[in-house]
Amino acid sequence: MSRHLEATIEIFPIVGLFTISRGSKSEAEVITCTMTENGFSGRGECVPYRRYGETVEGVLANITAMAGAIENGLTRLDLQANMKPGAARNAIDCALWDLEAKRSGQRVAEMIGATSTKPLVTAFTLSLGTPEAMAEEARKNAARPLLKIKLGTEDDESRMRAVAEGAPNARIIVDANEGWTPGNLLRHMEIAAEVGVALIEQPLPAGKDAELAKIRRLVPVCADESVHATGDLAALADRYDAVNIKLDKTGGLTGALAMKKEAQRLGFSIMVGCMVGTSLAMAPAVLLAEDAAYADLDGPLLLARERENGLRYEGSLVYPPEADLWG
């Protein structure tokens, strides 16, 4: 076996600013992991996230620290025991999946039973802004069937009403990014129900979300920051109706598949989400999302520049990856 691991930092500009309740950014910093073996090459991409204590430099160091083990034949299953969930493991895990597919001539979709060639409807994200700015963005994207709006302010009522009015035919997901409080939770949920919001994502801070078990949830609520690994799920069953599975949280497709299976067993609806990254990061998530209730895989649509041979998007439809991209 002659296996080699390389990891590089790449920067992709975002169209305008991407703003959530915790701040704004104008570019996506990603780490691309490339694994070569006997003439075959596999790739994976991750997006380090400061909310979870990750930095680009730290994640890059964690990936390169695994080079010796990878070159000595570390498998995907070994990887689960040797690295904690997170962005670094995601890049390596997905590169291993891609390498295995290239070596065997079998697509990852076949390996995991995701054989549909039909496109998925992905949510399209509207950044947090003034009610007027969000209404304008909603009008521009009113033809999209599913919008996700970033909230997390003391006055999200006006923003929800503005978006609902601007895109009256779209289903709407509200993502508060932990920005609501027990004091305004019920009021915001009442408004969400009134304007027809389909799902509320992570309204309260992780670890401080017990209030969700004490109220009648007028709109289904989805866990994001509150759920990272499969072991987190059981404790959330009384307060959430759905979970957002992201490969950068689970540490790759291997962990995400396990989390999805357990979440379904526990009765959660599934959203498959993403950080702001390129098609290389979205590709395995598209396969994971084949039968999910919600796909939120619009990262490339938010970028000013994409990778070559990226995913095929038609409006809000995203197609499974071709082999020259991943898997």
From TrEMBL:
What cofactor is this protein dependent on? Answer: Mg(2+)
Question: What note does UniProt attach to the cofactor annotation?
Answer: Binds 1 Mg(2+) ion per subunit.
Keywords of the record, alphabetical order, are:
Isomerase, Magnesium, Membrane, Metal-binding, Transmembrane, Transmembrane helix
Lineage: superkingdom:
Bacteria
Q: Does the keyword Acyltransferase apply?
A: no
Return the EC number. 5.1.1.-
> Which SUPFAM superfamilies does this chain map to?
Enolase C-terminal domain-like (SSF51604), Enolase N-terminal domain-like (SSF54826)
GO MF terms held by the record: metal ion binding; racemase and epimerase activity, acting on amino acids and derivatives
Spans traversing the lipid bilayer: 266-289
The enzyme's main class, written as a single word, is: isomerase
Pfam families named among the record's database cross-references: MR_MLE_C, MR_MLE_N
Q: Where is the Mandelate racemase/muconate lactonizing enzyme C-terminal domain?
A: 131-222
Active-site positions on this chain: 150, 246
Per UniProt, Mg(2+) binds at: 175, 201, 224
For this chain, the family text in UniProt reads: Belongs to the mandelate racemase/muconate lactonizing enzyme family.
Mind telling me what this protein is named?
Dipeptide epimerase
Record organism? Neorhizobium alkalisoli
